[in-house]
Amino acid sequence: MDAKLRQHDRVGVEICDLIKVYRTKVKDVIALRGIDASIPAGRAVGVVGPSGCGKTTLLNLVGGLDRCTAGSIRVGEREITRRGEKELARYRRETVGIVFQFFNLVPLLTAQENVELPLRMVGWRAPEREKKAGDLLEVVGLQSRADHRPDALSAGEQQRVALAVALANDPPLLLADEPTGELDSVNAEAVMGLLRDIVHEHGKTAMIVSHDPRIGGYVDQVLRMVDGRLVSPPMAGN
Questions:
Q1: Which H/E stretch holds residue 118?
Q2: Which residues contact residue 199 at a Cβ distance below 8 angstroms, ignoring those fewer than 6 apart?
Q3: How do the pLDDT tens digits run along the chain, 238 residues long?
Q4: How far, CA to CA in Å, does 199 sit from each of 116, 132, 147, 151, 234?
Q5: pTM strictly above 0.90
Q6: Measured in Å, how far apart are the chain's first and last C-alpha atoms?
Q7: 155-166 vs 126-139: helix crossing angle, rounded to 10
Q8: β pairing state of 70-75 and 78-79
Q9: Residue 8: its pLDDT value, please?
Q10: What phi and psi, each to the nearest 5 degrees, are found at residue 99?
Q11: Fold annotation for 41-67+95-236
Q12: Which residues does residue 29 pair with via DSSP β-bridges, in sequence order?
């Protein structure tokens, strides 16, 4: 893989006594019950567990997409749980790249244009963003498909484009929510291998939520969740 991504300071993630309660008119739902976890800088961690155990909630809190009820999250030198909306928006823009299960690509844009979109939003000029998007599509092995819209791409290709979009602003932290959930086994392994290579070769830190039992072969640690709690200590991946 060519070095198309900038090498920068790595960030670790420290999660302390994290609690999330969703309040409804009927009852309170406790999604997270005092999570403590540490993700070393430059490492990939998988979060596994049954549906409804709180995996995606945890990911959304680390990504600054939701707010916790109690506890703290530190990403690098930045404590994010008490930040205002403008600071969180800047955090998401500069620090976090998120890969979603359902790709979240703009259907009317080509792969190239989808990757350019986050760069356009932060003011990159056309020549620079075109080159950066092309470089990123090369990183994920899709430079030859740059002019194709999502409906002309396979599910595996769409997920790789989504990964390029997440990398557009060169974030030190990658968050992936079931990135292989819509893929067959061959494409799932290809995407997981690509995530692993990007983490290890380009100094990223990654947190990957997955039901896929093979995730242990592509990450450095596995965190297991049940009912909003971590139920075992981190285990080394293969």
A1: helix 111-121
A2: 42, 43, 44, 174, 205, 206
A3: 344 555 456 899 999 999 999 988 888 999 999 999 999 999 999 999 888 899 999 999 999 999 999 999 999 988 999 899 999 999 998 899 999 888 889 999 999 999 999 999 888 999 999 999 999 999 898 999 999 999 999 999 999 999 999 999 899 999 999 888 888 888 888 889 989 998 888 889 999 998 888 889 999 999 999 999 998 654 444 3
A4: 22, 19, 27, 28, 18
A5: no
A6: 22
A7: 130
A8: antiparallel
A9: 54
A10: -110, 120
A11: Rossmann fold (3.40.50)
A12: 22
d(C-alpha 193, C-alpha 111), whole Å = 21
Inter-residue contact 38 to 233 (CB < 8 Å) = no
Residue 186 amino acid letter: V
* Helix/strand/coil for 75: strand
Q: Indicate the domain borders of the chain.
A: 41-67+95-236
Q: Which of 108, 96, 61, 231 is nearest to 168 (CA)?
A: 96
CA-closest candidate to residue 228, choices 25, 82, 70: 70
Phi, psi of 23 (to 5 degrees): -100, 125
67 contact partners, CB below 8 Å, separation of at least 6: 61, 81
Cβ-based neighbour number of residue 229 at 10 Å: 15
H or E element in which residue 221 lies:
strand 221-226
Whether the CB-CB separation of 70 and 19 falls below 8 Å is answered with: yes
Q: Residue 235: which residues within 8 A CB-CB, separation 6 or more?
A: 216, 221, 222, 224
Return d(Cα 95, Cα 159) in angstroms, integer: 20
Strand 28-39's sheet: what is its strand order? 28-39, 13-23, 70-75, 78-79
Q: What is the DSSP letter of 37?
A: E
